[in-house]
Amino acid sequence: DNVNVNDGNENNDLFQYFPDDVKPTDCIVLAGEGATSTLHRDPFEWTGTSLCLEGTKLWRFIAPPGLHNPATIDSGVQTIDDVLNSYRLASVAWDDNNNNHPTSNTLTSISQPLPLSAGWQSDYSLYAFRDGNKVLSARELASIEEELGDKQKHSILESIATDLEALRPNLPDHFYQNNNNHHTNNNKSSIWTVIQKPGDLLVIPAHWWHQTYALEPSLAIASQRCGSERDFERVMRHMLTTSGSCTTTTTNTHSTIQSQIMQGLLDDENNSDDNHDHSRNVVNKLFRHLSSFRKEKNTT
Predict the structure, then answer these.
(1) Residues pairing with 202 in the sheet
(2) Rounded distance, CA 2 to CA 268, Å?
(3) Residue 245 main-chain phi, psi, to 5 deg
(4) 51: which strand partners?
(5) Please, how many CA atoms are within 13 Å of residue 66, restricted to the half-sphere of its CB?
(6) pLDDT tens for residues 63-96?
(7) Dihedral angle at the C-alpha atoms of 103, 284, 230, 126, nearest 10 degrees?
């Protein structure tokens, strides 16, 4: 069964209760013409957001095969991970500061930080080849906006963005053999395209691979959240798995132990009526569990 904080307040972002040294922070993203991000999906499996302040950004997403099956927590994203030959990059490691310095014995007694999160990266690109005859420069786009107006400019941007020959991916052949790029059902993934304009707040769901391309210079703020209902189970499972604190020999046993740990964390011994106190207590218990595991790991 799925478990969650169930505090009745989805606006309660549980990242705010994380220790300061591992708490995700906002990031200013300044992109010049032609800049791209890597093709990736996010660490912590959080829900991401991007607020565009200036310029425009082209986003392409690869939807997970289980898009229309919300009961499936992983959405079948492992299939996409495999097709993209993904690899993991650790993003956050944690030391609770109890053992930051050598003891009087040897340097080997220094504790090792505990990895809490790792994102997924791929060396494929959704913009591997640019057709200079179809993709206009930022200067040309600016001239069109000045002469014909913003509406005409964005119409051109949309035609470029949705043309997979203008900006062509280099995805492996079996991606196209197994998927219809503009249709999604329970058995298929797909490529989705978005043009983000100034003032647009884009929500980036967990398990959606994504990559950006700057047709013109842009400025944006990237953020993330861990909502109590939609995100916390997924984020907590990610942290427990990445840290190795519930690793076992079989998937079923792993899932059982993971669920037992999670349910124990969610059983708030203080039974607080305050939603924020309850959420804070759950996060504190999670980090106490991780701290105990880290100390045990460093003594073996």
Answers:
(1) 50
(2) 17
(3) -80, 0
(4) 201, 221
(5) 13
(6) 888 765 555 555 788 889 999 999 998 887 776 6
(7) -20
